[in-house]
Amino acid sequence: MRISGLLLVSLLVCASCIEKHDHRGKTPLVEVDGNFLYKEDLQSVLPVGLSKDDSLLFAEHYIRNWAEDILLYEKAQSNIPDNGEINRLVENYRKALITHTYQQELIDQKLSNEIPDQEITDYYEKNKELFKLERPLIKGLFIKVPLTAPQLANVRKWYKSDAQESVEHLEKYSLQNAVKYEYFYDKWVPLADILDMIPLKEEKPEEYISKNRHVEQKDTAFYYFLNVSDYRAVGEQKPYELAIPEVKDLLINIKQVDFMRQVKDDLYKRAVDRKKIKYNY
Questions:
Q1: Cα three-residue angle 162-165-167, rounded to 5 degrees
Q2: Which keywords are on file for this protein (predicted)?
């Protein structure tokens, strides 16, 4: 049954008709078999910026869903008389949740997430087999110019060299003539990001790029020039600068595991010393 706007407003303003109960300062809005939905709870989930009509519609659906959930839960309880297994699962979950929360608080208080650079480097060097690429990476330079652009002969010469002089010529040239210019000799980028900018019609573009470090393509409007100064294929070692976050996360996890193992060991030894652990065999 729909809740009229007038009735809903009345409920929001005053709920004195609900039986007296210790509501701990909250304003009861709806009751279903001793379960209360409070005005404050409804207001806390009410989206900001809704019109009056939309607010009433939202409240109507929320109240209806809340009541249905209560009724379904009560029906389920009455049809599952043996709650022993459920209680056991709930208690196990409660223990796990409390333990996890305590462990996290201990870790936050006692263990820093700061890992020295040298420790990161050492771990990376000793465990290179753990850090493999899942997609090819390249370093290089890319420039896209119109077919009518001037000095194309010079562009063909400049883009093939990573010498500072050639790069400077291209940078100056690109300011007035290039549609797209990307300099990435100093960083690794996913090959897929570059291929998205080139109309390369090859069945195996990754293999093609790995064998052809100077790529020139054209379509009906543009020339595309790519110089690949370095290439790493799938399965090769991940560059150190890209592996740093992964190495850091691994080291933090290792430190956390070792820390909690020590905490548990200390608790056990203390309990043994205080004769809190008794064996009956």
A1: 50
A2: Isomerase
